[in-house]
Design brief:
Helix content is 45%, strand content 16%. It contains 10 helices and 9 strands.
């Protein structure tokens, strides 16, 4: 029996709705170090309307992947927390990612971390027990966890160092990168300006120290202005040494970025640091971001870590 026009229309509408739901679905795999901020991030995802699944036993992950793929309208936005509590975290991560991708869902992977001294302080303040805690002490547990989760970190789309981030800044970092699809032919580039006296960002792949340039801090009328202002920008970029540095950096990146892509890298974080992270590094990061966008190497995000410190 041949289906009538009305039946064909209904089937076509259903198929169209299924395709639309699949295209609009967004699944996040959230991982990272214990004390790195996953609980806060999970709450942020909840605020965005995501269904958050945390600490699910590894044996149940394939069933979850099937459920998420079968009802894409109900589970249009899902965030799944996978960390060291899963036992073999890299295996659980690989199994979950494989199960999702096998059903046509490409999850976006976020990895949160922090410096050792920050993690130790957070555990001390909250009096929570580290999942790997034993007689070796908290520092050894953190070191062991870093080693165990390194394969997950290396495959993540977004790596965020939460050491010096407020909740608002963490929200901004997540919102900025949310839904950023990985394209194997292009790099997702993140630029971070920072102050070296506050520590180097853990997520940085490339770090450039720009303290060899004249510092606007010592100019009375510029001291309170950030590198986002035209006055500071003109002072920094007006230095011949700054233009020479940018020329060398553009030449290097023009060579290196395609090479990273050919090696299969899909994200790159470039950090530029000055003393306080408020003048020179900000102005240079903005100038470099403008060039990267003009050259269309890939999506570019900029984060000024110390901007709120002043």
């Amino acid at each position: 029996m041949t289906a009538g026009p009305e039946s064909q229309d209904v089937a076509g509408d259903a198929a169209g709705a299924a395709i639309e739901a699949a295209e609009s679905q967004h699944v996040v795999l959230l991982s990272g170090l214990s004390g790195g901020g996953k609980t806060a991030a999970a709450k942020l995802f909840e605020d965005l309307g995501y269904t958050v699944v945390d600490n699910l036993p590894g044996e149940l992950l394939p069933g979850l992947a099937e459920l998420v793929s079968e009802d894409r309208e109900r589970f249009g936005k899902v965030a799944i927390v996978l960390d060291i509590r899963s036992g073999d975290a890299p295996m659980a991560f690989g199994a979950m990612r494989g199960a999702l991708e096998g059903r046509g869902i490409r999850p976006q992977v976020f990895f949160l971390e922090a410096r050792d001294e920050v993690l130790i302080r957070r555990f001390s303040e909250t009096r929570h027990r580290h999942p790997l805690a034993d007689q070796r002490g908290i520092a050894s547990s953190i070191a062991a966890e870093r080693r165990l989760l390194d394969p997950v970190r290396s495959e993540s789309d977004v790596v965020i160092d939460t050491s010096d981030l407020s909740l608002r800044e963490l929200r901004e970092r997540i919102f900025t990168r949310l839904g950023e699809a990985a394209d194997p032919s292009r790099l997702a580039i993140q630029l971070i300006s920072f102050g070296l006296k506050y520590g180097v960002p853990l997520e940085a792949d490339l770090v450039f120290d720009v303290r060899f340039m004249q510092n606007p801090y010592y100019i009375d009328e510029l001291r309170q202005l950030s590198g986002l202002t035209e006055a500071v920008r003109a002072f920094v970029l007006g230095q011949p040494v700054a233009q020479e540095f940018l020329r060398y950096l553009r030449e290097f990146l023009g060579f290196a970025l395609p090479a990273y892509v050919s090696e299969g890298k899909t994200r790159l974080t470039i950090a530029l640091g000055c003393t306080g992270g408020y003048h020179r590094s900000i102005a240079l990061a903005e100038e470099l971001a403008s060039w990267l966008r003009d050259e269309d190497f890939g999506p570019v995000a900029v984060f000024h870590r110390e901007l709120d410190r002043a």
